[in-house]
């Protein structure tokens, strides 16, 4: 029973993680293309990095919590344990979702505050390391 319920927990939470990541990927790309002034290559690179971090945090949390509660004898207790864990995983998914959205918004706000720098960096050849404001990146 324990193995079956743990497997159900992993399948449900991993499916939810993939679904939420897909929503972030699809909708976040539009925002990032706007942030990086139509530089789709840079927007896609940033999107992939953020999604990778999203997956690491959520999948890591979910696999870590699989065995945190000991086995219980009856089926009702096992179902309660799994639903508690799925609820916790949904809370973590929601928190990381909004953290990534706030990172998107923060990037957007920073480029809107410095429109001359962002457009100058675009130039004819696109983004270049020489045009990056290194002091702002390190802050």
User: What's the total helix number?
Assistant: 5
Helix content: over 70%
The radius of gyration is 20 Å
**Ends: how far apart?**
51 Å
Q: How many domains make up the coordinates?
A: 1
Structural class: mainly alpha
- The overall strand count is 0
| Shape field | elongated
Query: What's the pLDDT, averaged over the residues?
Result: 75
Poorly predicted ranges: 118-124
Question: What is the N-to-C succession of helices and strands?
Answer: HHHHH
Major beta sheet, specifics? none
Strand content: under 5%
How does this structure look, described?
With about 140 residues, this protein is an all-alpha fold. It has one domain. It has five helices and no strands. The protein is elongated, with a radius of gyration of 20 Å. The termini are far apart. About 5% of the residues have low confidence.
Main features:
139 residues, elongated, mainly alpha, 5 helices, single chain
Give the secondary structure arrangement, pairings included:
Blueprint: H1 2-35, H2 40-64, H3 75-113, H4 115-122, H5 134-138
Quick overview:
The protein is mostly helical and 139 residues long. 80% of the residues lie in helices and 0% in strands.
